[in-house]
Amino acid sequence: MDTFIFILEIIGTIAFASSGAMIAVEKKMDIFGVNILGATTAVGGGIMRDVILGVTPPTAFAKPVYILFAILTSTLLFAIVYTTPDILHSKIKNKIYDKIMLWCDTVGLGIFTVLGIQTASRLVTEDNPFFFIFIGVLTGVGGGVLRDIMAGETPYILVREIYASASIAGGIVYVVCRSSVGEASGMLLGLGVTVVIRALATHFHWNLLRIR
Amino acid sequence: MDTFIFILEIIGTIAFASSGAMIAVEKKMDIFGVNILGATTAVGGGIMRDVILGVTPPTAFAKPVYILFAILTSTLLFAIVYTTPDILHSKIKNKIYDKIMLWCDTVGLGIFTVLGIQTASRLVTEDNPFFFIFIGVLTGVGGGVLRDIMAGETPYILVREIYASASIAGGIVYVVCRSSVGEASGMLLGLGVTVVIRALATHFHWNLLRIR
Amino acid sequence: MDTFIFILEIIGTIAFASSGAMIAVEKKMDIFGVNILGATTAVGGGIMRDVILGVTPPTAFAKPVYILFAILTSTLLFAIVYTTPDILHSKIKNKIYDKIMLWCDTVGLGIFTVLGIQTASRLVTEDNPFFFIFIGVLTGVGGGVLRDIMAGETPYILVREIYASASIAGGIVYVVCRSSVGEASGMLLGLGVTVVIRALATHFHWNLLRIR
Q1: Are C7 and C63 in contact (CB under 8 A)?
Q2: CB contact under 8 A, B154 and C149
Q3: Given C131, C162, C212, which is nearest A85 (Cβ)?
Q4: Is the Cβ of A155 closer than 8 Å to some Cβ of chain B?
Q5: Is residue C95 pLDDT above 80, yes or no?
Q6: Residues 6+ apart with CB under 8 A from C188
Q7: Mutation test of the interface with chain C: which of A36, A50, A53, A83, choosing the one with the most C Cβ atoms within 10 A?
Q8: pLDDT confidence of B37, banded at 50, 70, 90?
Q9: Which position among A74, A132, B13, C135 has the lowest Cβ density within 10 Å, counted as fewest Cβ atoms?
Q10: C127, C129, C139, C192: which is closest to C166 by C-alpha?
Q11: Nearest to C154 among A25, A88, A152 (CB)
């Protein structure tokens, strides 16, 4: 189980670090800014979760491995774009690149949502599903909110179709199913629901109600 | 006393949720963004207070009722504007609407200032008036600062005439008077001072010194 | 030692308060906005550090002296510019003023980096250099990040040449040297390294890699 969670954590870290690093690259930040924004996106949600749960120091500071992976990912992406800057301007950019970025953000959202719930239920004995799901959503969206605010953008969560709602749906599925299907399967199920809802919403341009 | 505090909390929650939700509506966010910004404004200051005081998990997460009221308020406001969008563009908008928004923000500011002080003095035994007032101001302005940063605006507190100063004045009055007039009356007095100062400042266009 | 640390804290507080206050002045904020931004810049990094380390309430709230110095500094600067507004528009402004602002920010960065490490090592018994340096950088850059986000600017740390890297270098020097040269000398050494690197980088326009 520990290995399973660690693998999820690393995948989520790499996915979110990529999304933060690439926004920094697009904004022409230097290699350090790219690393800072990548790392902030990757561990920001987890730090918020730990601060809320009273975990001191937060895991991201106590165990350097996550920030290390975030920095490796960010530096690698910077190196790729630095050596082949045409990547950002080529015709294929709009199609493939945007799709990759969307997947990184979506996978990170799904993974950190279930990881947040998992951490909260390990630390808080009282069974409070509402609270667990909230912590999950905070963990899932926190890094992206910091990323967008630092980059001077309106946070994704406020303007993108079906973003936090996908995270909430995945969280509910995990919390509801885990007693019957087990922790690991419950996490994969919740993560899958978040990713599928967000992917479908993007593909079919589902939108939530909006004032005209 | 508990009932009295709970009623204040709910009024403050509804007032701040309205101010956050309407800014989201004006920015053409979807129903989810409206709920997120409403809830963040309503519980943001209290979460900052609890993190500073070491209350884990913060009350907003442990007791869902506040977020629930924030969501109900935001969804209701969204529904009203969605069904009658002319509200935002009619002639009366500037007059009445702006006034309502100002009152929501002002009432929330006053209520959360005294609630912050009340929570701090319950949890911290040492009598430190400076610290209590600071926590009060943080609780009062915190949600609005988050709202403005997420909405991409310069925080109210930095640019509006007599904003944090009204909160500080109300906090001082509460802290000074409560031993003589009692907790509940002290809170109403402090809250009243904040609201009256801010209302007068807006009505008479009082301004603090500013570089020309 | 306590006196030495206190003197560093006050110098850092004044330096960062100045940098925050002057940005508020440039943005034409009123006297209260200037004080809020000055105080937030001065104590923001320390509050983040204390929240991460589980120090409740954070030192800035428990001991009013730091916020008091920040307010005195901000009010004094406001008064100077208010009485002689030409300062901001004179020919000499670009040369001297920008240099003073840079030094304030640099000295604050250096001081709060070593102070953050010092606090972390006092509170956390386990010897984790990586963690200490991280807390140091967070303490050093935290106030400036809040200042920039509240002022609506892209955080310095993301776009300025050699900013967080100077803080990291100073932090490493302090952590490595303190066992041999002692705490106080180690702090001065680390602080010196941060300041010198940042000063040299600005003078010679050193830049980190950046996508063209």
Answers
A1: no
A2: no
A3: C212
A4: yes
A5: no
A6: none
A7: A36
A8: very high
A9: A132
A10: C192
A11: A152
Phi then psi for C32, rounded to 5 degrees?
Answer: -75, -40
Omega cis (within 30) before B57? yes
Judge contact between C171 and C133, C-beta under 8 A: yes
Nearest to C44 by CA among B48, A34, B61, A36: B48
Residue B30, classed as helix, strand or coil, is: strand
Asked whether the beta carbons of residue C207 and residue A30 sit closer than 8 angstroms, the reply is yes
Cβ-Cβ contacts under 8 Å, B135 against chain C: 57, 61
Residue C147 CB coordination number (10 Å): 26
Residue type, B163: Y
List all chains that touch chain A, counting a touch as 3 or more CB pairs closer than 8 Å: B, C
Chain B nearest-CA residue for A153:
B152
Q: What is the CA radius of gyration of chain C?
A: 17
Position A122 in a domain: yes
Instruction: Quote the tokens at residue C203.
Output: 């003078």
Chain B residues with beta carbon closer than 8 angstroms to that of C153 = none
Cα-based distances in Å from A200 to A192, A205, C124: 12, 8, 47
> Tokens 């006297």 label which residue?
C31
A80 token code pair: 């790729």
Q: Evaluate whether residue A38 is within a structural domain.
A: yes
Of B54, B165, B212, which is closest to C32 when you measure between CB atoms? Answer: B165
Q: CB distance B159–C29 less than 8 Å?
A: yes
* Distance from the C27 Cα atom to the nearest Cα atom in chain A, whole angstroms: 17
Query: What pLDDT is stored for residue C94 in this prediction?
Result: 67
Q: Does a structural domain hold residue C209?
A: no
Q: Which chains touch C (3 or more CB pairs under 8 A)?
A: A, B
How many independent structural domains does chain C possess?
1
Query: What number is the average pLDDT over the span C153-166?
Result: 86
Report the alpha-carbon distance of residue C13 to residue C109 in Å, rounded: 10
pLDDT band for B92, please (50, 70, 90 cuts): low
Of C131, C159, C212, the CB nearest to A29: C159
Measured distance CA(A164)–CA(A158) in Å, rounded: 9
**pLDDT tier at B93, thresholds 50, 70, 90:** low
Quick check: C51 and A51 CB within 8 A? yes
SS3 B182: coil
Are C32 and B208 an interchain contact pair (Cβ–Cβ within 8 Å)? yes
The answer to whether residue C178 is domain-embedded is yes
Q: Which residue has the tokens 């885990």?
A: A178
What does the pLDDT profile of chain A (212 residues) look like in tens digits? Answer: 889 999 999 999 999 999 999 999 988 888 999 999 999 999 999 999 999 999 988 999 888 899 999 999 999 999 999 998 777 776 556 678 888 888 999 999 999 999 999 999 999 888 888 899 999 999 999 999 999 999 999 898 888 778 889 999 999 999 999 989 999 999 999 999 999 999 998 888 887 777 77
Q: How far is C5 from chain B (nearest CA, A)?
A: 22
Please provide residue C209's backbone torsions phi and psi, each rounded to the nearest 5 degrees: -50, 145
Cα C185 vs. chain centroid, distance in angstroms? 20
Domain that holds residue B21: 2-203
**Which of B84-98, B151-165, C177-191 is the least confident region?**
B84-98
Average pLDDT over residues C158-174: 90
**ipTM, 2 decimals?**
0.86
State pLDDT tens for residues B102-145. Answer: 899 999 999 999 999 999 999 988 888 889 999 999 999 999 99
Chain A residue closest in CA terms to C157: A33
Helix, coil or strand: residue C30: strand
